[in-house]
Design a protein that fits this description.
447 residues, 5 helices, 9% helix, mainly beta, Porin, globular
């Protein structure tokens, strides 16, 4: 009951935050952002007759990749190069979008996007990839939503499959890690890699606290299953608030989410009932100038009751674990053309992911026979360090060629002793790295 009370307090606290955001929503709206999320302009033009209109658009990115080193234990779960042998070369698509946005009126717009993502699967990585049974690339519905602009002064209501507050595309300028990092074509943000939905089916309110768009919010309730149908009775709640300072060069974003995973499930053992939930608190900050941008993203995730322990007494016990992550990035301009547009740029990022929480104490407890983590992206036995760096050549607007190197290093999180070696399937202390050299291409059309 103690865990139950703690979780209900967290649930109530999140609800209060969301209510405060809604009650204080401001007085204006944002502009159209990347990847087709249509946002109403801050001051609607009411002097001319409105004519309904639409926009067909799309984007594609992929690589020629050559893997020079492979982790012998194939750690990394659904990372795109997990299980791919060293010396493998491949051409691959990682994203293909075809979208259509339509302005129904001054106050209503709709968005529809088909997407094919992650062109990898059998024979190397069978855990990921939008592939048919015959391993051909397949599209799915990623976005399908309607936006009611200015449902009340300064706030839009969006219903349907849409970006979550973790992803962004809700403000007048970039305000989330996804938008400011700006290189999803190279790699997803760290919270996206570790299971936070970047899109979902639900309803959201997006608004601004001031006329200049320096302060805003985005709150959403969704299924938590992205493009898949709902599979349980629980909903994923998301929210963020952001602020911009120094003439919008400095942005700070605070994000929170919460979801119940299993609740009130009867379990064999003295604990009696399984209460299992997940919540993340994330801070993002970045400073941007015309020539260089630096940013930081860090999160703390608590997963209550996530580790199932089989005791030597024959009973099951559920223990709470925590994960910490930090990402640092920089991107900038090296050369510009005569009009001041970027022709050659650079980017670099380093992530550190530590999901160990209290695992060492759990595993070394006198009654522990074995354990199993139930939330796949948060495998508590493996720490990961990711880095990527490269150049960005832009011969014309919306066309990019980006040579880069992609590295992910894995390290066992448990101390070296015989008992932990057995529990950790013999991988304690072993390090491994996936190293991939890539030429990434990225282009946008219809915009």
């Amino acid at each position: 009951m103690k865990k139950h009370t703690h979780s209900m307090k967290q649930f109530a606290k999140t609800g209060i935050y969301c209510a405060l955001f809604l009650l204080t929503a401001g007085t204006t709206k944002g502009q159209t952002m990347a990847e087709g999320n249509a946002i109403a302009p801050p001051i609607p033009d009411t002097t001319t007759e409105f004519v309904p209109h639409g926009q067909l658009w799309g984007c594609t990115f992929g690589d020629f990749a050559y893997k020079t080193n492979s982790d012998i234990l194939n750690r990394g779960g659904t990372n795109q190069y997990t299980g791919t042998p060293a010396s493998t070369s491949l051409f691959q698509f990682r994203r293909i979008y075809l979208g259509y946005n339509y302005e129904l009126s001054r106050h209503f717009s709709v968005q529809f996007t088909l997407s094919s993502e992650n062109d990898y699967g059998a024979p190397f990585n069978t855990a990921s990839g939008d592939l048919l049974q015959n391993n051909k690339f397949a599209p799915f519905v990623k976005y399908a939503n309607i936006r009611w602009k200015n449902i009340w002064k300064g706030s839009d209501l969006v219903i349907g499959q849409q970006n979550t507050p973790a992803y962004g595309l809700t403000g007048r300028d970039e305000q989330t890690p996804e938008e400011v990092w700006a290189y999803r074509s190279v790699e997803r943000t760290i919270s996206d890699i570790y299971g936070t939905p970047c899109y979902d089916f639900g309803a959201s309110l997006q608004g601004w606290f001031d006329k200049k768009g320096n302060f805003g919010y985005n709150v959403m309730v969704g299924n938590g299953t992205m493009a898949k149908p709902e599979t349980d009775m629980y909903k994923w709640m998301y929210g963020n608030v952001y602020a911009k300072f120094l003439d919008k060069r400095l942005v700070v974003n605070l994000y929170q989410d919460y979801e119940r995973l299993n609740w009130g499930v009867s379990v064999k053992g003295p604990n009696g009932t399984w209460y299992h939930d997940r919540n993340m608190t994330k801070l993002f900050a970045a400073y941007t100038t015309k020539k260089i941008t630096v940013g930081f993203e860090g999160f703390h995730t608590t997963i209550m009751g996530d580790i199932q322990v089989t005791g030597k007494d024959g009973n099951f016990y559920y223990r709470t674990t925590e994960a910490m992550a930090m990402a640092f990035f920089v991107r900038g301009r090296i050369l510009s053309d005569h009009a001041g547009n970027a022709k050659l740029g650079f980017f670099a990022r380093f992530d550190n992911f530590d999901p160990t929480g209290d695992l060492s104490n759990i595993v070394n407890a006198a009654n522990t026979r074995s354990y199993l983590a139930t939330t796949a992206p948060y495998d508590p036995t493996t720490k990961q360090q990711f880095s990527v760096m490269g150049l960005d050549y832009t011969p014309i607007k919306n066309v990019h060629f980006m040579p880069n190197i992609w590295l992910n290093t894995y390290t066992s999180s448990l101390s070296q002793n015989a008992a932990n070696d057995l529990l950790n399937k013999g991988v304690t202390g072993i390090k491994g790295t996936d190293v991939v050299w890539r030429l990434t291409f990225y282009y946008i059309y219809g915009k």
